[in-house]
Amino acid sequence: MIKVIRNFDIGAKIGLVLLILFLTIVFLGPMMSPYSEVEIVGDVWESPNTSFWLGTDHVGRDLLTRIFTGGRMTVVVALIATCGAFLVGCPLGIASAVIGGWFDLLVTRAVDAVMAFPGLILALIVLSAIGTSIPALIFVIMVLDSTTVYRLTRAVAADIAVMNYIEVARLRGENMRWFLFKEILPNVAPTLLTEFGLRFVYSAIMISSLSFLGLGIQPPYADLGGMVKENAMAISFGRSAPILPAVALALLAIGVNLIVDGLLRHRAKLDQYK
Amino acid sequence: MQKTSITGLVLKRLTSGLVTLVLVSLMVFAGTEILPGDVAEAILGQQATAESVQVLRDKLGLERPAIVRYFEWLWNFAQGDLGRSLASGREISSLLSGRLGNTFFLALTAAAIAIPISVLLGLLAALYEDKLVDKGITISTLIFVSTPDFLIGYLLLLWGAVKLGWFPALSRMSSSMSFGDQLHVIAMPCLTLALVVSAHTMRLTRAAILQVMSQPYVEMAELKGASRKRIILKHAFPNALSPVLNIVLLTLAYLIVGVVVVEAVFNYSGMGRLMIDAVSTRDMPLVQACGLIFASVYVLLNLTADILSILTNPRRRRPI
Predict the structure, then answer these.
(1) Is A209's CB within 8 Å of B149's CB?
(2) A52: which DSSP letter?
(3) What are phi and psi of B84, to 5 degrees?
(4) Does residue B35 register a pLDDT over 90?
(5) How many CB atoms are closer than 10 A to CB A155?
(6) How many CB pairs under 8 A join A and B?
(7) Neighbours of A205 (CB within 10 A)
(8) Cα B277–B279–B284 angle (5° rounding)?
(9) What is the SS3 assignment for B91?
(10) How far is CA B295 from the centre of its chain?
(11) Buried b vs exposed e over A237-250: b needs ≥16 C-beta within 10 Å?
């Protein structure tokens, strides 16, 4: 692990620093802050000053504290949705590659049908039917993400499923569980790790976009996208209140994307030496 | 022999596209049917008596099986009868008419700016791989890909409309405006959309060109001493045409998603905002209509991309 990090190029190192900084600030920040995220402490949309470092929001709450808790909300919800997508997508993908036949055909067709939709539009249709709540949001993102995870896992696992050591395991008479967890999963893990990063960023931005449209996380809870929506009017007074939460989200996304890019380039180099 | 196999392949792809369209419409219909309660309850609200709900249900024909109503909905849809909105009671087709045009105007103008520039920059990045130009382009696309659409929108709004006052903050369109005025009004949403999609397009173009340039035949051409111009024009370009065409159509498809958020930022009266309003008021017929239109355009664009790639890439003509 440490060796991998040492081999990172400069971009990936910056990304790692950004990510760690973001996570520490977002999770430790609320404890350091003298204000709570719900208490009204100042005027509406105060400019940044010594008592409110980033100013205040549309009802006079401290914006920095709100960004801490909003960022935490975004990270936690996106993480749950991404983990869910992998818990659904990975086993299905590996099973498709190993079992093949009608099972593979059925799942692949279902995934194709979901992927025929633009993601945001499908999310809007489903949310209009089941209503807007955090579980509904997690469900929608999970379904959308699991399709890509399924396709990737299936493709990688299909390559591995025809390797000699799998044949040996098959002849040894190992059961399905052994195949999944001992033979295939360790070999698809590196690819899945980078995909996890990409999916996490996608989920975080998707959740924030939905909240920004008023269909994601609902008040009194707020995530970064919801905060942009709350403070949208401040823009006509030339205040930066709606921009700051969005910048925080962008920094998180840039951090993760830099790491993923670095990992991909590192792997491409390894492949070249083969 | 060769010719029939191409038409055969294209026909096969067209059929599968049609099946996808039907599947998509079925999912749009089913997706809006899974909610507890039905349209009658939604129209009358919670205070309605059981009798009045029953009367409306009979009137709307909701007692009939879902499959019958699905085909009726699809048939009416194909004929241009989209039903009535629950929230306003107006014909959906009249709600859509102006907005559909507005959305297409915005998306196509953005595409006209974004596609040539981003394909060119992607090409540049690929030709100067690992040089300073490439590094600059790669880093900036990474930043733009990671930036949420609404952040780009609000930054432009803050600078272009509020601080500098060059463009109106609310992108209000009317048909009485001249074309120039209309362009002025949509300048900022259009630029936002162009920035959002061009980052993706550039990354994809760069990857596609690099993939072609790493092929053995390009190396061969280099070894036999062909000029760089000749390698790019004669060897690399024809082979890169198919992936780049694909990327262009994917960019158009991506615009559909981007347009929803951008319309919300700039209060632009298009399909995206109509759909968002419909979702938040749970106006099911309207959600169905907008969802089906967005999804159909998306499916058709992907279908065109596939067919073009069959036509331009001989290797794909092999039966799969």
Answers:
(1) yes
(2) S
(3) -115, 145
(4) no
(5) 14
(6) 137
(7) 27
(8) 115
(9) strand
(10) 8
(11) eebbbbbbbbbbbb
CA–CA dist B122, B127 (Å, integer)? 9
Of B184, B192, B161, the closest CA to residue A236 belongs to: B161
Of B305, B195, B173, the closest CA to residue B258 belongs to: B195
Nearest CA in chain B to A240: B158
pLDDT in tens, A118-165: 888 888 888 888 878 888 899 999 999 999 999 988 888 888 777 777
Task: Tell which residue, A184, A143, A141, has the closest CA to residue A162.
Answer: A184
- Contact residues on chain A for B149, CB-CB shorter than 8 A: 209
d(CA A13, CA A259): 7
Q: Tell me the CB-side half-sphere exposure of residue A151, using CA atoms within 13 A.
A: 13
Token pair belonging to B269: 């009266």
pLDDT of A2-53, one tens digit each?
A: 666 777 778 888 889 999 999 988 888 777 777 777 777 777 777 777 777 7
Put simply, the answer to whether A127 touches B264 (Cβ < 8 Å) is no
| B222 CA: distance to closest CA in chain A (Å) | 20
Pick the residue from chain A with its C-alpha nearest to B149. A209
Q: Compute the distance between CA of residue A47 and CA of residue A242 in angstroms, rounded to an integer.
A: 13
Q: What is the DSSP letter of A62?
A: B
Q: Is A262 on the interface with B (CB under 8 A)?
A: no
SS3 state at A56:
strand
Shortest CA gap B21–chain A (Å):
9
Instruction: Give the tokens for residue B290.
Output: 């907008």
CB contact under 8 A, A215 and B27: no
Q: Which amino acid is at B107?
A: A
Provide the pLDDT for residue B320: 43
Option in B23, B151, B287 nearest A246 (CB): B151
Q: Is B218 on the interface with A (CB under 8 A)?
A: no
CA distances from A99 to A135, A145, A183, B303, B306 (A): 32, 23, 15, 30, 29
- The answer to whether B34 faces chain A, any CB pair under 8 Å, is yes
Pick from B31, B157, B299: CB nearest A129: B31
The reply to whether the predicted model has a pTM over 0.95 is no
Which two structure tokens, joined as six digits, stand for A206? 């998707």
Structure tokens at B38: 């039905």
Contact of A111 with A151, CB cutoff 8 Å: yes
Judged by CB atoms within 8 Å, which residues 88-147 of A form the interface with B? 112-114, 116-122, 124-131
Tokens in use for A100? 């093949």
Q: With CA atoms as reference, report the closest residue to B277 among B36, B26, B85.
A: B85
Residue A235 is classified by DSSP as G
Instruction: Return d(Cα B15, Cα B101) in angstroms, integer.
Output: 28
Distances (CA, A) of B206 to B115, B134, B222, B250: 13, 9, 20, 15
3-class secondary structure per residue, A167-209: HHHHHHCCCHHHHHHHHHHHHHHHHHHHHHHHHHHHHHHHHHH
DSSP state of B233: I
Residue B48 in this model has a pLDDT that exceeds 80: no
